Amino acid sequence: MTNLYAQCQSLIGVARNVITGTVLISLAAFTVQDTPQKPDESRFTPIVVSDNLDEPMVFEVLPDGSAYIIERKGALKKYNPSTKSTDLIANIPVNTKYTSAEGVSREAEEGLMGFTMDPNYEKNHWIYLYYAHPTEKKHILARFEIKDDQLVESSKKTVLEVETQREVCCHTGGGMTWDKAGNLYLAVGNNTGNQKAAQTDERPGRASWDDQGHAGNTNDLRGKILKIHPEPDGSYTIPEGNLYPKGTAKTRPEIYSMGHRNPWRITVDSKTGYLYWGEVGPDANEDSEIGPRGYDEMNQARKPGNFGWPWFVGDNQAFPVYDYAANKPLAKKDPNKPINESPNNTGLKELMPTAPNFIYYPYGVSDKFPLVGSGSRSATGGPVYHRSDFKAPARPWPAYYENKWITADFSRGWIMAVSMSENGDYQSMERVLPSYHPVQPIDMKFGPSGDLYVLEYGSNWFRKSENSRLIRIEYNGGNRKPIVQVSTDKKGGTVPFEAKLSADGTKDFDGDNLKYSWKITGSGAAPKTFNTANPTVKFDKPGVYTANLTVTDAKGAANSQSIKIIAGNEPPKVAVSLEGNKTFFFAGKSIPYAVDVVDKEDGSLADGKIKPDQIAISIDYASEGFDYAEVIQGQRSVDASTQFAVAQVLIGKSDCKVCHQPNTKSVGPSFADISNKYKGQPGVTEKLVEKILKGGSGVWGEVAMAAHPALPVADAETIVKYILNSTDKTLSTLPVKGEYTPKIPAKDNGKGTVLIRAAFTDRSVSGNKAIPAQTTEEMIVLRSPEINAAEAPIVQGAEMKALGTAGLGFSVVTFANSFLAFKEFDLTGIKELEMNAAAQKREGAMGGKVEVHLDSPTGTLIGEKSVEIAPEVDMAKIMAELESQKKPGETVKPPRRPTREPVVVKIEPTSGKHDIYLVFKNAEAKPVEPLMTLSKITFKQ
User: Which of 50, 60, 197, 739 would disulfide-bridge 86, Cβ 3.0–4.6 Å?
Assistant: First the structure.
């Protein structure tokens, strides 16, 4: 019954069209659906289980809530839920380097890479580790016993060895999982050097760069997913159902699937037996003669198969074998009958047809899977959720996620739920907890309690990160804690003063009645308590106070939030004044600005006691969709002294920190190194913007820089300017008075915002170190003068209509006496409104008049314009005429429908901010008859 109400409401919403005969309703629309409702995100809570980790790789959770975690450099650790501590269990000697042909030692991806617990761990206490041997060129799968929270080294049984090369990086795999029959699956990376698009270097002495001898070789374990059955004595047997039967010449019977570049976290669906994994693909951003652009893959294997690498990627897009000696691409392989003719191939020459890939996506926006986003990519993988996998779980995830694959991307930091049909075909995907942003999720699985655990590797590559941690995401299907929001009208002042505390914004998702309890403490004063939501508090003694609000719902669930108030130091006053319009910016037209600062204790800008260079002033153009609120929130708590506030927000929201840090080298160079190398070079901004958008390699090392083709050019330019100036401490602010001329970057749609921001931090009160400094900032946001009508915050009597092609947005269909309104728009200097409005006969439109009113639908009329029914364009007639005029053999393309001139409404001179109402009228139209369709409004000077 859950969807019936929504369906009825939807039908009511189209009733007007039903009357006009344009929509037919099927009784099937009333079919009651039993599909579980998607749970509200407020029911999920990410909780930090263990932090302060050093390159964590894989974890496992025990029934008592403890967890084992391995780290790349060799550490095996255990989290203890009783003590809340994470303790070292053992250090496994491992190799973490490779030595290049030039004799240079570099950091590799290897080390302690894989970990799993035996299915009967509670009885035998066996674990399996997959690691790089410390001195020999091989990876080891070994079994150990855990006893009294210690690794028994004498219990080691070497189960399997994989021969490797250490001449060049990369790709080691390391994911492990089990099926119901007790078979162990192990993902093994291709262990091949990255060069060109696919690695097919057949020259003598270049075997480490030829993946035809690794991933494409049926007689090599690299670039494979293996399936074995571990035996009690530490050996293994070959189970039925692998790719090649045991005894097949030139094959390894352990191979379940082949043709992998870097298969990562693998999982077996407990119901279907299907295998799922993330596959990290090649780096090319564009198609070229040497192969297609790169794709990462989220894959599914319903049976053993060949997944095509190094000859195919994505939906069987083919790479030619590259002739490095002649420096040219050769022929492409046939996916139905790939032939491995490499001299480095020791296996079968004729391979199985390539298996179909499941989900695949490039650096740019994916047409087929647009929700995955764009930019750096590194498909991780994750579990398939079944409630039946858990015995009496304390907090099982809701039925909505039953049978769905919960998968993550390491670089993009998202988690997706992939829905599939009964036979496993892809149906759809959706974000899981969009507000949770894991920092490089490297492993993910459900624990025995039913919670989803996410291991976050952290932002630094090959070294410890402060933000590496293990997260537990709990689902609460019952009563939820209140969400508490606190604020104050004064964050400080000269004593005595009064501050009004506010609980506005506090809410309870269950609709419970709430009780409020404020407690104000600090500075040696007796605590004060209040039991109202918005009390007024008097502060008469200097010091730092904490106002803590605890909110309790009717069922006893409570939550708290605090705010600090500084007594004895008046916050400074910062004012930004603009000449001209204060709502819109106009490209190419200068914006005169001035900043003024007054502080009760420190003086003012006018009297010279506050110096201009003490005020942080920044002006930025940000692309469409930039959330300027994050600049304010971020700078209040982090840094109020920089003109690069917008750039820092953009970097924080992007994948920049995956590879770069401000002052220290990660997998890529630091911002300081980039600045020192490029600053001052002619054309460097444009050069680096292109590098961000298109990617590249070879300048700073072997690791390629990811392409970001979907990043707005304006945002890339803002980031580059920040990076180039990151080492110059004298560029912390702009002049306190000046002009800024907005310039729309190339390829930007011009629909962004101009952010003008000023911030000042005063000095702590002289003679009293206990009273800290105060920061005040003001930001003015100027928006594009081009507005989508569907964005109007007030709509009455009109309807939204999707534009012709998916993803283009909405237009507004208006009716008699309907109106739209925009809040607090400044009309200073605005002479006319240009509207993309049309009354089309084929849509049943009647035409009418649009009126522009101030502050209400009946307020002052400042402009009006009639919109007549547009004459119909006979496209068939136009096409016939073109056909009659064509020359012999010429093909006539259908012409585009003629563009209609916009409707221009002249308005009377108006100054200041007002609510702007667009009212649509036609006294002769019936209530169900549309007047016109409106898609865009441009305010013009």
Answer: 50
Q: Is residue 473 within 8 Å of 451, Cβ to Cβ?
A: yes
Q: Is 819 left (phi over 0), alpha (psi -120 to 50) or beta?
A: beta
d(CA 639, CA 230): 55
Alpha-carbon gap, residue 430 to 39, rounded angstroms: 13
What percentage of the chain reaches a pLDDT higher than 90? 69
DSSP structure class, residue 347: S
Across 164-285, the runs of DSSP E, i.e. the strands, are 173-178, 184-188, 224-230, 236-237, 255-258, 263-268, 275-279
d(CA 98, CA 208): 12
Residue recorded with tokens 């820089």 = 705
DSSP at 887: P
Tens digit of pLDDT for each residue in 25-71? 232 333 334 678 999 999 999 999 999 899 999 999 999 999 999 99
- Alpha-carbon distance of 109 to 116, in angstroms, equals 19
Which one, of 170, 193, 164, 206, lies nearest residue 342 by Cα? 206
Q: Residue 938 is inside which H or E element, if any?
A: strand 930-940
With residues binned 3-state (H G I as helix, E B as strand, rest as coil), the percentages for the chain, rounded to 5, are 10, 40, 50
Sign of the C-alpha dihedral computed for residues 686, 692, 693 and 699 taken in this order: positive
Identify whether the C-beta of residue 263 lies closer than 8 Å to the C-beta of residue 176.
no
The Cα 719–Cα 717 span in angstroms is 5
Task: Please report how the helices 629-637 and 645-653 are oriented relative to each other, as an axis angle in degrees rounded to 10.
Answer: 100
